[in-house]
Amino acid sequence: MKLNKKLLITIDGPAGAGKTTVSKMLAKRLGYNYIDTGALYRGIAYEARQKNITASDDNNLKKICENINLEFVNVGEEQHLFSNNKDIEPFIRTEEISMLASAVSAKPFVRKALLKLQRNLGSKKCAVFEGRDMGTVIFPNADIKFFLQASIEERAERRYKQLPNASERGLKDIKNRIIKRDKNDSERKLAPLKPAEDAIIIDSTEMRAEQVAELMIASIFR
What we know:
- 48% of the residues lie in helices and 17% in strands.
- By secondary structure, the protein is α/β, with parallel strands linked by helices.
- The two termini are 14 Å apart.
């Protein structure tokens, strides 16, 4: 499936809405690069956690931002995040890192440090960027913007199914964390989570990932 012109596509939305799966599907269908921008914030959170630096420790967080070298590297068919030449992909997808990433992403100096990197990655277009403020802040002039959402119950259930040996209590904990992260992401003063005014909003609560990707494809080729 080929497009007649190069596009920069953004997919924003809250945790558990299915952004990662759908973004990868869409990028593969279009032959585009897939960029998981949330991984960049996870990378900073990971480095902070390794050094026992909290989200309130601005001085040491600034030092991390000044010295960190983040890059995406293809490992087989997967895209991994490397920090200072170390593959940290296996360590950045935990709930602990997710919550810390949400906290550090509210820091202006963190967002400033990653802004140039993200825009450089998008300079040649032919890319699908997944995140929370891609269409509102990072790429306000993106060619096509999507905002993917789903009910809290559905998002918690999806996360629950991804965890081995999860319990009913675990499901409640996941739901509470999603509610907390939604609050943090949507109420922060800097780049809050919200749809861009010109975004195409899709509710994936009762849709399979393949159906969402097909809907996006139809919108792109419309």
